[in-house]
């Protein structure tokens, strides 16, 4: 996913680093001051138009999610792929069951999903059980 802005209007080329782009219903993205959410193990952008971008957290402690001058492609680890995939499946699950997306609900859902494998999160029985657990934890 990338955002291109032409230099003729005085802007820079901005490109997202490798991650996962998920489309959800726009009314499920809770509006807050910042759309940029730095969770303990991932970086998530919750746009109010329904697009959600999930990327691995930078290991250098510096936010590298947006870069004006892209550096050569850096290989990500298997753990990064699993975390991004887990968040992607959680977002799909929450969207399917009509649960609002915010940094707090995503943290709760991530913690509750740790007892399942990433590929199991989208199975119907596990999805229903996990969504009920998320709703109970939120309320």
UniProtKB/TrEMBL annotation:
Boundaries of every K Homology domain copy: 19-60
InterPro entries: KH_dom_type_1, KH_dom_type_1_sf
SUPFAM superfamilies, per database record: Eukaryotic type KH-domain (KH-domain type I)
GO molecular function: RNA binding
Keywords: Signal
Leader sequence segment: 1-21
Protein name (Swiss-Prot/TrEMBL): Exosome complex component RRP4 (Trinotate prediction)
Species the sequence originates in: Myxobolus squamalis
């Amino acid at each position: 996913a990338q955002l291109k802005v032409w230099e003729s209007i005085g802007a820079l080329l901005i490109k997202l680093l490798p991650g996962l782009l998920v489309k959800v219903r726009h009314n499920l993205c809770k509006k807050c001051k910042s759309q940029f959410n730095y969770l303990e193990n991932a970086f998530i952008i919750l746009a109010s138009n329904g697009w959600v971008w999930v990327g691995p957290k930078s290991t250098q402690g510096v936010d590298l999610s947006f870069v004006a001058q892209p550096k050569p492609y850096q290989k990500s680890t298997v753990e990064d792929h699993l975390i991004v995939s887990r968040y992607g499946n959680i977002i799909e699950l929450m969207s399917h069951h009509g649960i609002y997306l915010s940094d707090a609900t995503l943290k709760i859902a991530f913690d509750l999903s740790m007892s399942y494998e990433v590929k199991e999160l989208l199975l119907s029985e596990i999805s229903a059980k996990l969504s009920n657990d998320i709703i109970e934890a939120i309320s």
